[in-house]
Amino acid sequence: MSNKIISTVEVVVVLVAAGCLVAQKTESEPGKARKQETRILNVLEEMLNDQYSAMLSVPPEDGKVLRLLAEATGAKHIVEVGTSNGYASIWFCLALRSTSGRLTTFEIDARRAALARENFKRAGVDKLVTLIVGDAHEKVTIIKEPIDIVFIDADKDGYLDYLNKLLPLVRPGGLIVAHDTTDAGSLMEDYLKAVTTKSELETIFLHEYTTGIGVTLKKRQYDNRSNLNLR
Ligand SMILES: C[S@@+](CC[C@H](N)C(=O)[O-])C[C@H]1O[C@@H](n2cnc3c(N)ncnc32)[C@H](O)[C@@H]1O
Fold this sequence. Notes:
Helix content is 49%, strand content 19%. It is α/β, with parallel strands linked by helices. Helix 7 links the parallel strand 4 and strand 5. The model has no long low-confidence stretch (mean pLDDT 89). The protein binds S-adenosylmethionine. S-adenosylmethionine is lined by residues 56-58, 82, 84, 87-88, 106-109, 112, 135-137, 153-155, 158.
């Protein structure tokens, strides 16, 4: 009889312990993700306060757009041209955590690249990012894998060259996002013409009265009358 009671107690203890473990696991995953997000947002805030002016980073409103586009497209591979200190890269990483994606980013200035690496570590996103130092006009050719989003934010008169080199790798349904389309007007005239006239592309402009973000869709299907020029 007493053996029976002991084994019943044992079963109850084991069941309760197992229940606690399951509860802990289901609670800890969102908790962990929230903590990581807070850590990343804290680093973005510090970068905004301490490093922003010298680094030519996108403003936070544009960072939010980048995150949103990456998350909405379920991006697995993003390529950024012009890392600077990694501010926009880290906005992308907020999305890449949930899409299980990764970022390849190019920066010509070794000092900025070193600062970006430090920032990636502090934000805990360094494993999501491959940073390549050098002239992106040459270096982008090392990319061979499909791309979901290209983000161009470097030398303005080089945008068309980046587009020509990377567009073949962008998957149909993927995006080419260009920063500073308002400011840099004539320097990127050739780029703006290409993304608003090529029949395989459809382009809209966001934040047109501030920084200007060109968002170009590589269409899945197209005919050569298309690309409504809405600019
Ligand atoms: C506007 S900043 C990039 C800001 C960054 N995307 C962000 O929002 O945090 C432009 C960066 O492009 C880099 N750059 C300019 N020409 C480049 C090139 N040919 N190859 C790679 N990087 C280049 C500059 O050194 C600079 O750091």
